[in-house]
Amino acid sequence: MQMPSGVHALVRRTHEERVLRALQENGAMSRGEIARIVGLSRTTLSEITASLLQRGAIVIVDTDASRREGSGRPAERLALDPASAQFMGVDFGHRRVHVVVADASHEIMASGATRYDDTTPWQERTALALALVERLTAEAGVHYGALQGIGIGVPGPYPAPEGRSWPRATPSGTVLRPAPEGVDVAFAERFDAPVIVDNNTRLAALAEAISGTDSVADLVYVRLSDGVGGGLVVGGQLVTGSSGLAGELGHVTVDPAGRPCRCGKRGCLETVASVPAILAACWEFGLPLENLRDLADAVARAHPVADRVLREAAGVLGRVVGAATMTLNPAKVVIGGEITQLAPVIVDQVAATLGADLFPTASAAPVVEAARLSDDDGAIGALAAVFHNSPLLARYPETADVKGGAGARDSTTEGAAHVRP
Amino acid sequence: MQMPSGVHALVRRTHEERVLRALQENGAMSRGEIARIVGLSRTTLSEITASLLQRGAIVIVDTDASRREGSGRPAERLALDPASAQFMGVDFGHRRVHVVVADASHEIMASGATRYDDTTPWQERTALALALVERLTAEAGVHYGALQGIGIGVPGPYPAPEGRSWPRATPSGTVLRPAPEGVDVAFAERFDAPVIVDNNTRLAALAEAISGTDSVADLVYVRLSDGVGGGLVVGGQLVTGSSGLAGELGHVTVDPAGRPCRCGKRGCLETVASVPAILAACWEFGLPLENLRDLADAVARAHPVADRVLREAAGVLGRVVGAATMTLNPAKVVIGGEITQLAPVIVDQVAATLGADLFPTASAAPVVEAARLSDDDGAIGALAAVFHNSPLLARYPETADVKGGAGARDSTTEGAAHVRP
């Protein structure tokens, strides 16, 4: 095949971009791990990393000696120059905001939280979050001089559906707030950095997909709490849907004649598998439980009503997840929410029901597991989104534009805490 | 924000790539259409297109006078130089193979079909397809000298699940063949061009998503025929899933106690909404129909049994599509298969059932419509896959590597039929 001139330079640039992207998405890795992820030979990869090291685009951060099992020579771990970038994750909950800041090698540099009331308006929440960010400068010396991106998680669908008529008032009269306007602008103006905003359950799905060393490209995530939320990762990307509502597994109809749901329909999964629905079902069968702690006690005592209610709810959840699995063929299904930690029967029952609803071949069945990150780890999900979407790669030094040079290899995370010029 | 040197060139290159990608994916368009799709101002776009025209990467193919409604000055339509690339779509059905060849402006240059028996082995089907391709050279003068990519659609899941134990034998003993190995290699070796192979129902989903001027990024496609197949487009990309099974809506369980399905489960959607299932249900209710033509007659006579059976099957289909819609939030749901053309009640009933299963807001409801492309248009789907995935863009002329120049503007589709050097 004829190769136009310049094609070799393009191929090399493409290889470099894949290496840098792998480091950005996964943090520090050995050459072997990088080679496996980007699908290059060790020889080609060594040429690429040598060039990137020489130009200061990446650095050697440590060896994998401490993580390595067994013997063998420890391998150097490479990373984007930690000082070359900072990433911020912000998670707005109904009653608090969490902030974490990480460097380019994915090490957490600083984190903190501020509480507020669940009636606090968005403008005030945003101001509290920005004040928290300033406090991290004072307390941890983080100056955001190389901030590459900010991920912000918010409760509720994002972007909010047109007309903002969803979600409706609940039967008890509580009105759920639509996703906030202005929070992205406030952060972008303060830091002059790109901002990604998304639903925090969806960001949690992304964090689960890339957590640990066994990251997956296709994942279905569902979280049981006051409601039932969800998020999808398809082909390595978070799915938003055409109007920001993708992943709303909690509002799949499981019984058209079922109980009214706060969304205005009847018989949604949420009316069966949310924490309040499960507690209410226990009451109905004669086991009065006030909260999750009571439920945990009942589970610990192997109370038959709690077991039956949990199995039934998880069975219904399993059928919904089963349909989603036939639709999306994920490698992994993750069930989140504190209740799944307290009641392991949920994950077991979902796996059993799901298995019966799939093609009768083992190869199509996803791993079903409880969430690794807790509900409080939302800011990690927001960070994951920026690791995946930062524009950093468009600006890494080209061959003609070497910065730092070999000296940059000695950069440490402290180096990042410099004042914006 | 500090801008490293070279960043302006990178920004321009990014803009150019977006323009070229839009033209590759959509074929010829006016500057106004391009500006809308890539999100650039008319001024910036004009600079970009002027540079690309000057370098011969794109050409003016015609004006939109013939397509334009109302008055106003006709706009020039721009396209990748038609002679710069050819794309081939190949659709293997159970009893025939279709081939179409298009140029870079998406005009069909040649097409043809060859029949075979449904017991014909894959090796022979591949040979017949390659012979058909040669015949197009003789009959239509197409020489594949600038072939950029080949899309191949095959029946059944692709890639085939591990162990190839799916699909199983049907109750009547027919064994469905797994997707072929070797067909991709045979085409790649013959043409020295990249080959994309995928399930042909999935490729049809992509073709529906990008058909017409109202292309959508998120689509759920389901096709009713001897079985029930499906395909998903999410965020503009075709979804494969972790083991090639994404989009198998026909095997979502709708009744765990239902009829045995050829996949080995019970009560799959396919046992209710496939053409054989619908015909069998008509028999059960006293309306003996042999085939789709009989069903079309019954529908034309408004036979109450046919109407009831179709509504019930479509209602079940609507619930499955409703769950998929809550999961994926698509902009459009497309129901394919000849039966949907014969019985419009199917699409109407799916839309009604689906509507009841969604959030009670209009903004979240997808358009539901019958497929635009027929079952015989599979090769168009295969072409769509290469338009979206061709490596052409990595090789378009850089500023330093001008080819063709202004003279290339006069190229026509005939110019593409040159012999490989």
Automatic annotation (TrEMBL), chains A, B:
InterPro entries: ATPase_NBD (IPR043129), ROK (IPR000600), ROK_cs (IPR049874), WH-like_DNA-bd_sf (IPR036388), WH_DNA-bd_sf (IPR036390). It comes from the Bacteria. Belongs to the ROK (NagC/XylR) family. It comes from Streptomyces coerulescens. The lineage of its organism: Bacteria, Bacillati, Actinomycetota, Actinomycetes, Kitasatosporales. This is ROK family transcriptional regulator. Transmembrane segments: none annotated. It holds the Pfam family HTH_24. Residues 401-421 are annotated as: Disordered.
